[in-house]
């Protein structure tokens, strides 16, 4: 089967420091990957390069078999790849407006948009928060809304940056539930994290970054 993403030769430096020197990685469609590594090892930077939010030298990249220049990041690829920040930014307006934003940008008609936003609200379990101004939400609640905002677009690849970091036990459980759901729903998910429970999820492929290089760790063991 054609891999969803193949990227070869990724290099990124800050001044004299070579942060990324990745020979290459391959992500299969419908699989989940966790990227571990020490603080400052380059996890977020790598995800942001894949999302077109950070520039890097890249030898070659193919998405679903189609060659892409990540430096130019074509519009069609922006529709296929969504990055969710560790501390998601929600703009003024309502929670529903935030979730609807990407659909609006894509010129989706109002009726269809409202239906999908409603489904995403239920999926994320944020029905009770709809009247709360986004800037009043807790970190965990913001993360739920950000995951709904990403999922409503049905990208082929979710890039989640430490989605459970700094959350209390209850919020973490809720976010974990959504992550499990994304991983089980045949989406390709790549997460950067330090959270043991996510790292040990069944069928999670483990990648580790150290000294700029990404290596694959032991294959997933548990059966679904
Ligand atoms: N614009 C920049 N200029 C200089 N150095 C930078 C810049 N952006 C990031 N860095 C450095 O690159 C390194 C990697 O950062 P990155 O955020 O990718 O690490 P990380 O693995 O995600 O860490 P954490 O686990 O703490 O989230 C850090 O040491 C950071 O200070
Ligand atoms: Mg990071």
Descriptive report:
The chain is 33% helix and 27% strand. With 224 residues, the chain is an alpha/beta fold. The chain has one domain (5-87, 141-216): Rossmann fold (3-Layer(aba) Sandwich). The protein has a 6-stranded mixed β-sheet, with helices on both faces. Strands 2-1-4-5 form a 4-stranded antiparallel β-sheet, with no helix packed on it. The protein is globular and about 45 Å long. The two termini are 20 Å apart. Adenosine-5'-triphosphate is lined by residues 14, 19, 37, 39-45, 192.
What is this structure, in a nutshell?
It contains seven helices and ten strands. The protein is an alpha/beta fold and 224 residues long.
Percentage of residues in DSSP E strands: 25-35%
Shape call? globular
Task: Extract low-pLDDT stretches.
Answer: none
Total strand segments: 10
The order of strands across the largest sheet is 6-7-8-3-9-10
CATH C-level category: Alpha Beta
Q: What is the number of helices?
A: 7
Please give the share of residues in helix: 25-40%
Which architecture per CATH? 3-Layer(aba) Sandwich
Biggest pleated-sheet summary:
6 strands, mixed
Mean pLDDT: 94
Q: What is the name of the CATH topology?
A: Rossmann fold
Give the oligomeric state: single chain
What molecules are bound to this protein? adenosine-5'-triphosphate, magnesium ion
Distance between the termini: 20 Å
CATH superfamily placement: P-loop containing nucleotide triphosphate hydrolases
Number of domains: 1
Q: Name the structural class.
A: alpha/beta
The run of helices and strands is EEEHEEHEHHHEHEHEE
Radius of gyration: 17 Å
